[in-house]
Amino acid sequence: MKTQDPFLRDLPLPRQFGSELLALERGEGCYLIDVAGNRYLDFGAGIAVNALGYGREDLARVAYEQMRKLAHVSNLFTTRPAVDLARKLVATGDFAAVHFGNSGSEANEAALKYARLYAQRRRGAGHEKLLCFDGAFHGRTMGALSVTPTPKYQAPFVPLIPGIVELPYNDEAALERTLDASFAGVIVEVVQGEGGLRTMTPSFARALNAACRRHDVILVADEVQTGLGRTGYPYACALVGLVPDIVTLAKPLGGGLPLSATLIPAKVNDLLHPGEHGTTFGGGPVTTAVSAKVVETLLEPEFLEEVRSKSQVLDAGLESLRARFDFLGELRGAGMLRGLQVSEARTGSLPELLARIREKGLVVLRSGADIVRIAPPLVISREEIAQGIGILESVFSQC
Ligand code: PMP
Hints:
- Helix content is 38%, strand content 19%.
- It is α/β, with parallel strands linked by helices and 399 residues long.
- The protein has two domains: 7-56 and 301-396, Aspartate Aminotransferase, domain 1, CATH 3.90.1150; 58-298, Type I PLP-dependent aspartate aminotransferase-like (Major domain) (Aspartate Aminotransferase, domain 2, 3-Layer(aba) Sandwich), CATH 3.40.640.10.
- The strands form four sheets. Strands 6-12-11-10-9-7-8 form a seven-stranded mixed sheet, with helices on both faces. It has a four-stranded mixed sheet with strand order 3-4-5-15. It has a four-stranded antiparallel sheet with strand order 13-14-17-16.
- The protein binds 4'-deoxy-4'-aminopyridoxal-5'-phosphate (PMP).
- Residues 47, 103-105, 108, 137-139, 189, 193-194, 222, 224-225, 250 line the site of 4'-deoxy-4'-aminopyridoxal-5'-phosphate.
């Protein structure tokens, strides 16, 4: 029962966040507790961030101990935690180095800059175009925004960076017609986390692999939302056979602290000179020390196996809802990143639907125009999955 209103209003925050926000106080396992003491089962994980759930003593201890030793050094120096984490990440694929940053946008900015630098050094001027796809989301900074071709995000901020080409997602013919040596890079998500949870087809992945190799174009996989176990695999690329040159990571990487990584191959790293890119905070000792523990946990084969197995429970639950309610459309996504298409004509607007679900004690997200996105902490139990499905069922049965 509510003892007081947990919403805060008249906020000294920019209006893009709306006029009122639910204020959260703490988390326990897969539950969030607001300032009025209401508990919510979390099917959102802070937008696919809190993979290991809340209230983790082990992560808190690592952060506390590192804070006391050394909290920040800048990129003029390094620390053991940063180097140890970089070694772990490099070992996840054919990578030579990791550029750390603080957000998904920054990870993608670095990737786009590396793609252009590589093209310029290897092939000279005139190979600077960047290819992106409709429905993509790569971030809000000017470069990342330029490859996020959704009018509502871009329109107020034009002109964006030049040399961007947008194609329909999963359209091999358009890709074959368009990609040539005038491009430096392609940036793509295997599951479009924000744009409606469409998934790359294996044949589009093959076409991307081949076209990028043919023209020596850098293929960037944005695994900010999908990476590190979210789909049951270290990288979602494995689901479809995409073989990227660069992988970007963020959301779950820092265990809730801001940390991102741009994983680069030797062929890019070998062309970089000191001072060509940088960061003040990226890869600090506290975030990387916490991250080492997070990454170690998330990439354990037994942990990933368990995520895949629990994903099937989630899937079965969502399929049972689709069978029961005719206003539910496609089930999209993969692993623990799922999307349920709803007909707003029946459910009311998506924001209202999400609010009704939250009032029943479950936090879910939206994606694209008409998708309820489900991205729980990866440590969620089968019982908690069943409980969340039950809450969805009770809300849907009143639609
Ligand atoms: N790429 C993807 C795939 C994302 O989902 C997001 C954030 N939703 C970003 C990039 C941007 O990350 P950030 O908000 O940390 O800058």
